[in-house]
Amino acid sequence: MPTREPQVSLSLRGVNRILSGHPWVYRSDIRAAEGLEPGAAVQVRDERGRFLGRGWFSTASQIALRLLTREDVPIDDAFLAGRLEAAADYRGRVVENTTAYRLVYGESDGLPGLVVDRYADYFVIQTLTQAAERLKNTFVRLLEERFRPAGIVERNDPKGRQLEGLEQRTGVLAGECPPEVVVEENGVRFAYDLLRGQKTGGFLDQRENRAAVARYARGSVLDCFCYAGGFALTLGAWAEQVEAIDNAPTALAAARRNLELNGTRNVVLREANVFDVLKAYSEAGRQFDMVILDPPAFAKNKASLEPARRGYKEINLRALKLLRPGGTLVSCSCSYHVAESMLLELVAEAALDAGRQVVVMERRTQARDHPILLTMPESHYLKCMVLAISS
User: CA angle, corner 276, sides to 275 and 280, nearest 5?
Assistant: First the structure.
């Protein structure tokens, strides 16, 4: 007799969540799920047995189910290859002026828990759920068959894997990985360490914002939380001088390497605490034509939201005091819990305290290769405000 396909049944609230288009169902809304293996592909049904779709089940995470499809189709190699092909086709429509981009962005590409970033001929993957980890070798094989990369690296070091009962690890899964991979972005060359750099090597999600902000760059620029110099080098071709600050020696070493790659002479790197520098420059009466604030996530969860609000307001207040009339403030947040409306509210409060009048020129988000799934707010995390200081 054929083996019975694993099934889970959902509460009414879980059903309504699926019907609303959100792919996550929490454990509290699972009504029946007996004897399932970690990462199992399952049929999803309501309490009356009606078919809702197919998804991946987690035995550890509070997000117990991640929906894959509402259709009654098998979750096999052909299904996964089709999702990878659709992701590649989409990038062919939206990616430009770069040899590094995100190829797969989890739920937004219908592959929950899977991230794939491409750096020239090298791929970096993250398998962040039990199901994605279980299928890791399959994904590697499918990527090799479709793209023929020179190497595939896993960067499975995010702490979020622990919520799925998975250990953290990094390493080469296929081919090779050189000490650095050089890519081109918006006419600038960047060297990335795929095994030890931030995230999967670099911050690809700000690529389009860096190009957009460059249009406003002139005179003197202060780039805060510069990491590997993404904004600083992109703006260096337009501004007279850029001062780039970060408190991490490894970040500044990467930025220094990128300056060498491009022969850039008008970017000065400084190792320091950004909060301290902003305070000291404000007290000293320093002035800039542009200040860029691209901090790490201050609010990693709801519990840290209030101190995060204070942090965002403080850096924006101090940045506003450093800008000349007619200057530009670029204020970013990569905290999902800080909504765009909240960031604008905090900047408005800072502007009132600083006695500055501020106009919104652009409201931007993550690059298009990090697509926002309209029915999943969690897929929208990066906010980037370009603001003009009118007085």
Answer: 120
Confidence band of 356 (pLDDT split at 50, 70, 90): very high
Distance between CA atoms of residues 337 and 332, nearest Å:
13
Rounded Cα–Cα distance for residues 331 and 346 (Å): 11
Average pLDDT estimate for 365-389 = 97
Can you tell me whether residue 39 is helix, strand or coil? coil
Which among 177, 226, 332, 334 is annotated as catalytic?
Answer: 334
- φ and ψ at residue 352, rounded to 5 degrees: -60, -45
Does the pLDDT at position 1 exceed 60? no
b/e code 207-231 from CB counts within 10 Å (16+ = b): bbbbbbbbebbebbbbbbbbbbbbb
Nearest Cα to Cα of residue 111 among 383, 371, 390: 371
Active site residue 384: no
- The CA–CA distances, whole Å, from 170 to 120, 124, 198, 260 equal 19, 10, 13, 28
303: pLDDT confidence band, cut at 50, 70 and 90? confident
What distance in Å separates the CA atoms of residue 345 and residue 219, rounded to the nearest whole number?
28
Query: Which contacts qualify for 280-284: CB closer than 8 Å, 24 or more apart?
Result: 281/222, 281/318, 281/322, 282/318, 282/321, 282/322
Contacts of 145 (CB under 8 A, 6+ apart): 81
Question: What pLDDT sits at residue 3?
Answer: 59
Pairing of strands 267-271, 41-46: unpaired
CB atoms within 10 A of CB 239: 22
Residue type, 72: D
Asked whether residue 334 carries a pLDDT value surpassing 70, the answer given is yes
Between CA 374 and CA 249 the distance in angstroms is 38
Q: What is the mean pLDDT of the chain?
A: 96
